[in-house]
Every structure is written in C-alpha cells, then in structure tokens.
Amino acid sequence: xxxxxxxxxxxxxxxxxxxxxxxxxxxxxxxxxxxxxxxxxxxxxxxxxxxxxxxxxxxxxxxxxxxxxxxxxxxxxxxxxxxxxxxxxxxxxxxxxxxxxxxxxxxxxxxxxxxxxxxxxxxxxxxxxxxxxxxxxxxxxxxxxxxxxxxxxxxxxxxxxxxxxxxxxxxxxxxxxxxxxxxxxxxxxxxxxxxxxxxxxxxxxxxxxxxxxxxxxxxxxxxxxx
Length: 226
What we know:
The protein is an alpha+beta fold. Helices cover 16% and strands 43% of the residues.
C-alpha cells in the first residue's frame, strides 16, 4: 500500500501561532491489522527524533514548540484515522543569539527551500505551474541579520543543519516502512454553497535536496503550494 503522512509542528511566539507542515510518502507501509493511530505516533516519534533538535535550534527562547500532529493517509490522500495523533512538546527554542533577541518591526523569517523531483498525480488532473516548495523559519533574532539584510554565517549553519535533516528518509523498523519527504501541491476552486471549497487537483513531488536563502525575509509558510 502506498500512503502519506502529514505532520504539523505547531508553535507560538508571543501569542502568535506558527505552523509548519511537512509531508512524507511511503510505498511499503502496510496497514494490515495494526492500529493506524498507533502507527502514526511511531512515525511522528521518528520524525521528531530526527529533526526536533535542529528545528528548535533555529528559534530563540521566546518561541515555544507546543505540539506535533500527524495524520496517516492512503494513496488517495484520505486520512486513515479520524483525528490527528498528537505529541505534546511544550519546549522553548534553544537558539541563543549574541545580542538582541527580537527583530524590529515585522517578524523576520528565513526561507529553507526544497529541490524537488517531478510532480506525480494524487487526485484528479492538473499540476502546479511552479514545482517549488519551502518553509519559513523564525522569527529570526536581529543579531543574526547583518546590515545588508543577509543571514549571518552562524544562523546559516543552523538552517543548513535543519535542511540536512528534513531531506532525510525516515526508516521505521517496527513498521518495516521507509518514508520519503515530499511536498504537496494542490488547488481548490471557489466555495460552493453547502459544499465548501472543491478540490481541483493534487500532486506530490519528492524532496531531492534543500537550499538556504541567505537573505532574510518577511515571507510566511504556505499550506498549499499550487
């Protein structure tokens, strides 16, 4: 059975919610007679063990990673369990900036981009015009942005370490399954009365690598990437 895992890291920074979403794909995960909810927690624990430390190292102590949520899905992207499986974390960022912790004005973020393989269809027919994916990490402390708006070498190192973890395959020994990081592209039509937004198409692309944008920005992560 082919399937997907959708993972959300839910944090806050001075009361503002910050959510980054990641997707994994497996071609050898088999539900069998197991409980998909428990399987989901196993995959989530693998993901957190792989990259939680590096993720927190990109955030200062004013950021708190509240929880991680995961949903296992079949090859049609339909959830295999009713509600997301959740691990409560409540851990502050571990990045220690050498000076001012906060940026002035709007919160500054850093962009970690992903190099992607070709798109593959999940639902219906269509694909993204731009086959790209990224996450916005931050807020970034003012001390890690130079006078030209570029990230310092030290913070670049933190992001590089995170990127090296996020493009890793996860091998879950108890489940005898390998999970490959992917990015999901999807597009919805206008709202329909009594129905809501209607999916027009959905694709996925394997993550082949990553790149760090040296310029600080005010962009935010997006849930959809059409």
